[in-house]
Specification:
452 residues, alpha+beta, Beta-Lactamase, Helix Hairpins, Heat Shock Protein 90, 3 domains, five-stranded antiparallel beta sheet, five-stranded mixed beta sheet, 12 strands, 15% strand, binds adenosine-5'-diphosphate
């Protein structure tokens, strides 16, 4: 990753340098072309002057040269004798005669050439013209641009380029390192070699932060889901254990009484009736447990399509009717007041009310009351029975949790009623809680509006 970034960085720099050099070269070629045009124009003008006044060639050479400094003007005979020269230093006539532009002028009357006469640092544009077949007018114009380019601009460009690389390296290197480090952290996190807690998205670059936050969110979700799955598995295991235990105890009793009846055929009728009564009671308990387990199971299978507007007052009155044998036994008066309509599966509302009102009767006092109070979005089931101590209030909604196992089992409870009620309210996004004081009754409140 780091190597790739560095490679891209250097390729970018090299390309920049290439572009600068190509641009400079194009500019230079354009300049030389322009100079070439000017030189030919001067050559034509100068040749006209020469043919008009051929008296003082040296004066003429100086005059032409001064018209476009640093132009050098030379008059040379075809045999190599220099007649006039505007330049200060002497030049070698033999060498001059061999130059391309002079050779061309002798052959075709006119010639031009770009020459690196002395060295790369002294290039010049040269032109020559044969006048009347006996005199050669030679112009030589040094190209200052190349000299400048080679001596000043090129070193300057290189220097600037190096400075640019140094500065960008100095500025970019820490950034590159940090980006690479941050990406490595992401990789380590995904590979599981870094712990999620070691990572703070705030320390990431803003461009990387959203991706990091998403990854952390997904990791958290995954962890949460795994915890939930493991919790669900634990709960299922507990449920199987508890159900087996709950069913095992009545079965043990039934087996015990059945064995006694079997082993002792001479038992009296009254005793037999008593044992059979116990067996019947335990069987009913088992049926109640199995019914509640099935009710719990049914919770997840309810279909949305079965939902309708349910009148809780009507359902509560039906439940009261169904509970009337138990209520009469304890001389408990069940009343239903107020109105509440909910959009739900009616069977769910029946199960909810059946469990809350059934408990209120079961744990209610002799000659007491059960009041169902309804208002919009709210259901209360109030009794004046034994009540629930604070430490049990949260746990009573767990499956098979009982405040007093022996007492509550004896009262006919399965330990699943409130778990069923909580499951139903949970499914409807409603909240259930209890307000109670030991000895002063309990009030179960279902809030259909408030989300859990
Ligand atoms: P059970 O079938 O044993 O009643 P529940 O899940 O319905 O099981 O209730 C759990 C426990 O909560 C009960 O065993 C009982 O101790 C307590 N409880 C529930 N409702 C009431 C109530 N209205 N008054 C007092 N205690 C209650």
């Amino acid at each position: 990753m780091r190597k790739k970034l560095l490679r891209s960085y250097w390729i970018g720099n090299a390309l920049t340098l290439l572009i600068v050099v190509v641009f400079a070269a194009v500019m230079l070629v354009t300049d030389i072309r322009t100079d070439q045009g000017s030189l030919m124009a001067i050559l034509n003008t100068a040749s006209a002057w020469t043919t008009e006044s051929s008296s003082n060639l040296q004066e003429l050479a100086d005059k032409i040269a001064s018209s476009s400094p640093p132009l050098r003007v030379t008059f040379i005979m075809p045999n190599g004798i220099i007649l006039a020269d505007s330049g200060k230093e002497d030049q070698d006539p033999q060498k001059l005669m061999k130059q391309e532009e002079v050779v061309l002028a002798l052959r075709h009357g006119i010639g031009e050439d770009f020459s690196l006469r002395d060295s790369l640092l002294h290039p010049s544009l040269n032109a020559a013209m044969l006048l009347d077949g006996r005199l050669i007018l030679h112009l030589s114009n040094p190209i200052e641009e190349i000299k400048h380019l080679v001596t000043v601009y090129f070193p300057l460009i290189v220097l600037m380029f190096l400075a640019m690389i140094a500065v960008s390296h100095w500025l970019l290197d820490p950034v590159t390192r940090r980006v690479v480090k941050q990406l490595e952290q992401v990789r380590d996190l995904l590979e599981g070699t870094t712990s999620r807690d070691q990572i703070n998205p705030e320390h990431f670059y803003p461009e990387l932060r959203p991706a990091m936050e998403n990854i952390l969110y997904l990791i958290d979700r995954l962890r949460y889901d795994l915890v939930q799955i493991s919790k669900t598995q634990d709960m299922q295991r507990d449920f199987v254990d508890n159900s087996s235990h709950e069913l095992k105890s009545p079965l043990t009793s039934i087996t015990g009484f059945a064995e006694m009846l079997y082993d002792e055929p001479e038992l009296g009728l009254a005793q037999r009736q008593e044992y059979l009564g116990y067996i019947l009671e335990e069987c009913q308990r088992m049926i109640a447990i199995i019914n509640d387990i099935l009710m719990l199971e049914r919770q997840d299978q309810r279909k949305i399509g079965e939902m309708a507007r349910v009148d809780l007052n009507r359902v509560a009155n039906q439940v009261a009717q169904a509970l009337s044998p138990q209520a009469q036994q304890k001389d408990i008066a069940i009343t239903v007041q107020g109105q509440c309509h909910v959009f739900a599966v009616e069977q769910d509302m029946w199960d909810l009310l059946r469990n809350l009102m059934g408990n209120a009767v079961r744990y209610g006092r002799q000659g007491g009351y059960v009041k169902v109070l309804l208002s919009e979005g709210r259901l209360e089931v109030r009794d004046n029975g034994i009540g629930i101590a604070r430490e049990h209030r949260e746990r009573i909604f767990e499956k098979f949790y009982r405040v007093d196992a022996a007492r509550d089992r004896g009262a006919g409870g399965t330990g699943l009623g409130l778990a069923i009620a909580a499951g139903i309210t949970n499914r409807y996004g409603a909240a259930i809680h209890v307000e109670s004081e030991p000895g002063q009754g309990a009030c179960f409140i279902v809030d259909f509006v408030r989300k859990l």
